[in-house]
Amino acid sequence: MSDPAVFGEYAGDAAKAFWQAWQDELQVNIDALSDLGGKVHTTAANYSSADHGVRQQYQQGA
Known about the structure:
By secondary structure, this protein is mainly α. The chain contains two helices and no strands. It has helices spanning 4-7, 11-61. The mean pLDDT is 88.
């Protein structure tokens, strides 16, 4: 990935550290999106349940 003759003797270590940090950040984003998806699913279920309850109240009153 990086040639020590061109970038210096620490270039390989720096590149490895960069890629590890990038992968760690990617995992944080994956986890956050997964959590968000779960919350959206829960919210949709709550709205559906509330809509069903309101529908039942209107049907009983009619």
